[in-house]
Amino acid sequence: MLGIEGPQSSRRDTARYDELLAPVTSKDNDAKFNRATAAYKNLDERFRAAKRTYERQYAQLYFSRLMLLKAIMKACMEQLWPGVPVCSILEVQESKEVAVIGTIYKNMKLNPSILDEYCKDRGLKAALGAANFCADDDSVVLEDEGARMVLSAPAAAGGGASTSAASAAAAGGGDMPLNVQELVTGVVLAVRGVAEPGGDFVVSAVCFPGMAPNPHPLPVAQQAAAVAATAAPGDKYIALASGFCLGGSKADMLKTQLAFDFLTGNLGSPVEQQLSAQIVRLVVAGGCIGQLEALAGGGGGGGGSSNPYNRQAQGAALQPVRDLDLLLAELAAGLPVDVMPGAEDPANVALPQQPMHRCLFPAAGTYGSFVRATNPHEFESDGVRFLGSSGQNLDDVAKYSAMRDRLDLMERSLVCRHLAPTAPDTLTCYPFHDKDPFILETSPHVYFVGNQPEFATRLVGSGAGAGGSAAPVVRLVAVPSFARSGTIVLVNLRTLACHPVSFSSSLGL
């Protein structure tokens, strides 16, 4: 069954089965639709690495992150806290109110040790992988290029501000109380407060960098349309999908084929086919393969042998890759496709993940419409900028923060101007030494994250940005895993409105 939730669903429901009762017609009388096209510009250059060396320490990455965001923080602090002196940690004097810029380090007693990676109890390791490591007695330390100091909240506040404070910070960089549970290691921020004699730095307010401006903001009329979310017949859509998990236990090939047939225009009534023709590009945000261990070891399939040199086992392990290539070739023949690597896909593990190798796609790679993208992935389509990831960055932040709502976490990422603040502390990444590609110098119009528990969306950023500039309207999209939900998401390029399209292999009885 095909279920569409959105502005076109009412037209479909009025005549749901009428086309089945129509007289038999020849193929020449069938409705014909021409697929819409849109301009496309790949912006993945900052995430690509031609040559990589792992000889450097990660401390340089933290230093680069702090230096690159320091100027932005100073401008925001001058606007938010006029008259408050800004100093380094070494210059802080007791009983004198000052503002300090630095990087957060969060002390967590439940934070797993690297030794847990080698524990013999695999069941315990799997359980830890899905846990949240926050505790009531967690504490935070602020560190700059010279020293570090312990932060504490005033006794009256107790560090217990509500999670809705994330939305309050989005407007102008934020003027919030210290909330330890919402912070994660690696976030650059500014704190205002007073150092106690021989003790902690008592924080009265916290300032984040705030959402970055967009160099190409959408026209005012288009921003108003984003709020109204009214679709028109000539609108164009970007389709977002993730988590097909081919070869995994949760994969449903019939459901997957239904989705691919819809995207290529081979499924549904003329109403659905017209909607399919309006899709100008599909972006697969990771999670394509669901059997990475079998692929790496060559076992777990055909013959039941764990020998990596067993040709029958190797063939069974590689079958999901062949299926993926054939499915993507089918798609690329009908519309442009961007494929990003994910946590379980055959690509490098450290962020930013480089495009999956061309040898994995002997069929799909022959099409010019097929793009092997990085993770994170950034591109423009008809002037609308998209930025997204396959989910590792958001999933990792969720483990070390008390914020549960995935959209709140995405919004906080924009406010902190950083895609992956927990890298490299708990999320592996390349040890950059002179830059940090995860810093958001500009805000996208659409920020999407794949492989999430469920579909969710929100519009943010209509207030003032740092330095008094107008912050752009940003559409947040949490793209659910297709293997679990059977859902892809369509984003309207004109209005930024989005709605899910759901598929099911059941009869719906």
TrEMBL record:
<keyword id="KW-0235">DNA replication</keyword>
<dbReference type="InterPro" id="IPR041863">
    <property type="entry name" value="PolD2_C"/>
</dbReference>
<dbReference type="GO" id="GO:0006271">
    <property type="term" value="P:DNA strand elongation involved in DNA replication"/>
</dbReference>
<feature type="domain" description="DNA polymerase delta subunit OB-fold">
    <location>
        <begin position="57"/>
        <end position="205"/>
    </location>
</feature>
<dbReference type="InterPro" id="IPR024826">
    <property type="entry name" value="DNA_pol_delta/II_ssu"/>
</dbReference>
<feature type="domain" description="DNA polymerase alpha/delta/epsilon subunit B">
    <location>
        <begin position="238"/>
        <end position="457"/>
    </location>
</feature>
<dbReference type="GO" id="GO:0043625">
    <property type="term" value="C:delta DNA polymerase complex"/>
</dbReference>
<dbReference type="InterPro" id="IPR007185">
    <property type="entry name" value="DNA_pol_a/d/e_bsu"/>
</dbReference>
<dbReference type="GO" id="GO:0003677">
    <property type="term" value="F:DNA binding"/>
</dbReference>
<dbReference type="InterPro" id="IPR040663">
    <property type="entry name" value="DNA_pol_D_N"/>
</dbReference>
<comment type="similarity">
    <text>Belongs to the DNA polymerase delta/II small subunit family.</text>
</comment>
<dbReference type="Pfam" id="PF04042">
    <property type="entry name" value="DNA_pol_E_B"/>
</dbReference>
<dbReference type="GO" id="GO:1902969">
    <property type="term" value="P:mitotic DNA replication"/>
</dbReference>
<keyword id="KW-0539">Nucleus</keyword>
<protein>
    <recommendedName>
        <fullName>DNA polymerase delta small subunit</fullName>
    </recommendedName>
</protein>
<dbReference type="Pfam" id="PF18018">
    <property type="entry name" value="DNA_pol_D_N"/>
</dbReference>
